[in-house]
Specification:
It contains twelve helices and five strands. By secondary structure, the chain is α/β, with parallel strands linked by helices.
């Protein structure tokens, strides 16, 4: 597939987290630090580290899929940190749901996209498992049904959105309509080009209605995908996960990478930015998405609603003689 996009200056690799090693920037020689000796610089929010800057040209081949930007030192540290985050995530989820009973319309939508075996299902299992499932709405999007094909491409997405107080998780999403649709030439290019703008307007309308949209691209290496597919073939208990068509799809790897680059470039907005998650290390992928969810929930800071009844009077009635026993 020939690339037709105009060239734009690339940012240096040192400017982008998760990219392959480049020259690191340092302090000017001899410049005194304003901080006391031994003071640690606060780490930036992970959202800032992994965010795709709005309007910037993207080259996914320059991102290291085995990197761990902003992450713990190793798998053991990541698992321990996730255990600590789990309690806080569950508390914030409960507050979000509780606030909805008093009219708070806010909710959250996690969008997971990535090549086959990148870990969309694994993320749902390991990360969303930290939440109360009754407050989650999970939807895995497959090929459109005959009914869905008779509607605009966003129709089936609107039907699956989380209700207020819920956390929604999309395993694949409306982005399939600018990814596989581009790679497989399923729609005319003129129609495809309009979809990016439709997606941006749709996501902006969601944020105006109280939805926090978190879009994660699980960036998997081609060699890692081959190894994960081989594991599925080597283990009889994984055969159900294997599709011979996955082998054919690998021939379209460059086209899919280009389709993702275009989608991430055009649809990483202030209202709904994209985050690139290096996905070769499953422990880092799970930790990073957990951390992003925690940061966004803490930013929302949902509160339990105040009682709309007389607490003291209710206590007195409950403890009165007539209500004992």
């Amino acid at each position: 597939m020939a690339k037709t996009r105009s060239k734009a200056p690339k940012a240096s690799k040192a400017e982008k987290p998760g990219k392959k090693a480049g020259k690191a920037s340092g302090k000017a020689p001899g410049k005194a630090s304003d901080k006391p000796k031994g003071a640690k610089k606060a780490a930036p929010p992970l959202a800032d580290v992994l965010r795709v800057p709005e309007g910037e040209r993207l080259d996914l081949s320059s991102y290291d899929t085995r990197a761990t930007p902003g992450g713990p030192v190793d798998k053991a540290a990541a698992l321990a940190d996730m255990a600590r985050m789990g309690e806080r995530l569950a508390d914030l989820q409960e507050r979000l749901y509780a606030a909805s009973t008093a009219g708070d319309r806010r909710r959250m939508l996690l969008v997971l996209q990535g090549m086959d075996t990148s870990g969309k299902g694994g993320t749902v299992k390991h990360v969303i498992g930290l939440f109360n499932p009754s407050g989650c709405r999970i939807k895995a999007f497959k090929a459109p049904t005959a009914e869905e094909q008779n509607h605009p491409f966003l129709w089936r997405i609107m039907k699956a959105l989380p209700e207020r107080g819920e956390i929604g998780i999309f395993d694949r999403s409306h982005y399939e309509d600018v990814l596989i649709a581009r790679v497989r030439d399923l729609v005319p290019r003129s129609q495809l080009g309009r979809r990016y703008g439709q997606i941006n307007r749709f996501e902006k309308s969601l944020t105006h209605d109280g939805v926090t949209v978190i879009k994660c691209f699980l960036h998997l290496g081609k060699d890692e995908q081959r190894d994960r597919l081989l594991e599925r073939l080597d283990r009889p208990d994984k055969h159900w996960k294997f599709n011979p068509g996955d082998i054919e799809e690998r021939a379209f790897w460059p086209a899919y990478q280009e389709a993702y680059e275009i989608a991430l470039e055009r649809c990483s907005t202030e209202a709904a930015p994209w985050f690139v998650i290096p996905a070769d290390r499953k422990w880092y992928r799970n930790w990073a998405i957990s951390k992003l969810l925690l940061e966004h929930l803490e930013s929302l800071d949902p509160q339990y609603p105040k009682a709309d009844f007389d607490v003291a009077e209710s206590r007195e009635r409950l403890l009165s003689a007539g209500w004992q026993g």
